[in-house]
Design goal:
By secondary structure, the chain is an alpha+beta fold. About 55% of the residues lie in helices and about 10% in strands. Strands 1-3-2 form a 3-stranded antiparallel β-sheet. The termini are far apart. The C terminus is likely disordered.
Length: about 110
């Protein structure tokens, strides 16, 4: 199996990052990877079809958010947090903080007026 291609830190663009994060499934993958060091594709698929997940992982890799490495029959994924923080300081902290706040609000019952 040939290795995956990943953009270098100087090739990372906000347009691709924001496009990748605009999909709820990809945002969920990024959120999960922010909590763990590495995860396999199977751990991140949420029962979704393999073809769909391959598409989402390709977009995340092309944007430079995720690094995927084949290890035998498994594919290990990690968030490229250090490279992203070096290129766009504070961006991922803001994204992850906002998504955590949104998740917390979504879990609370709405107030009646």
């Amino acid at each position: 199996m040939r290795p995956y291609k990943h953009p270098t830190p100087d090739q990372l663009t906000l347009e691709r990052i924001f496009h990748a994060l605009s999909d709820p499934i990809r945002l969920e993958i990024v959120q999960h990877l922010a909590r763990v060091e590495m995860a396999t594709c199977g751990e991140l698929d949420g029962g979704r079809p393999k073809s769909s997940m391959s598409h989402h992982f390709r977009i995340l890799r092309d944007a430079g958010l995720v690094h995927t490495q084949a290890e035998g029959t498994n594919h290990q994924n990690r968030l490229r947090l250090d490279e992203l923080n070096a290129r766009f300081p504070g961006l991922m902290d803001a994204v992850l903080a906002q998504t955590e706040a949104s998740s917390a609000r979504a879990g609370k019952p709405r107030r009646k007026r």
